[in-house]
Amino acid sequence: MKNVLAPVSNLSELIACIMTVAMMVHIVTNVSLRVTVNGYVPATIETVSYYYMIAAVFLGIFVATYHEAHIRVDVFYNLFRKSVRHVIDVFASIVLFVYLALFAYGLLLRALRSTAHGEFVETIFFDLPVWPTRWLALAGMGLAFMAAGYIAIRTVRRPSSSGPGER
User: Fold this and answer.
1) Contact criterion met (CB below 8 Å) for 89 and 155
2) First to last CA, the chain
3) How far is CA 48 from CA 24, 30, 62, 88, in A?
4) Exposure string (b/e) for 3-16, b if CB count within 10 Å is 16 or more?
5) Domain limits of the chain?
6) Residue 129: what are its φ and ψ, rounded to 5°?
7) How many other CB atoms are there within 10 angstroms of residue 68's CB atom?
8) What is the dihedral angle through the alpha carbons of 32, 36, 40, 46, rounded to the nearest 10 degrees?
9) Alpha-helical segments (H) within the chain
10) How does DSSP classify residue 159?
11) Sign of the C-alpha dihedral computed for residues 101, 103, 106 and 111 taken in this order
12) Continuous segment of H or E residues that includes residue 120
């Protein structure tokens, strides 16, 4: 599974970075035009909200999950023995897996509904289709779900016994 997820994570990270830079260029261009010539780039808010942010956030969630880079609060965690910490890790990885599964399922239902209705947002000059981004969100969350499953299996299989005198 790692052989599949690692290159996909690298590609997702690259795409998320490209979308973040594209968002920055788009916004800076829009603001620059507004300040200098009282112009604008049509559909900036919609493009940023429905395309760039979706790619950056949902692919970013997958990358963070794969690299186990989510925020952790371990105020009391380090006070426990290694075997107790292992139980906590197993529980946390299973909860994450279930949460991401439910989130991905919700996104699947939303993507199906959105595609069936041909969802779009109205801009001043044109209708911007947003149903494709529902599938991008599902892809990112589905990949995060798979990464969480890989992490849960790896965590369960990791030895949990602590040696004499080890905490």
Assistant:
1) yes
2) 31
3) 9, 11, 20, 39
4) eebeebbeebbebb
5) 2-70+80-157
6) -65, 130
7) 14
8) 30
9) 2-37, 44-47, 53-66, 82-117, 131-157
10) -
11) negative
12) strand 120-122
Q: Which two tokens stand for residue 62?
A: 């997958």
Q: What does the alpha-carbon distance between residue 9 and residue 3 come to, in Å, rounded to a whole number? A: 10
Residue 40 to residue 90: CA distance in whole angstroms: 51
Give the pLDDT of the chain (167 residues) as one tens digit per residue: 788 999 999 999 999 999 999 999 999 999 999 999 999 999 999 999 999 999 999 999 999 999 999 888 888 898 999 999 999 999 999 999 999 999 999 999 999 999 999 999 999 889 999 999 999 999 999 999 999 999 999 999 987 654 444 44
How many angstroms separate the CA atoms of 79 and 62, rounded? 30
Q: Can you name the residues that pair with 121 across neighbouring β-strands?
A: 128
- The encoded tokens of residue 14 equal 């690259």
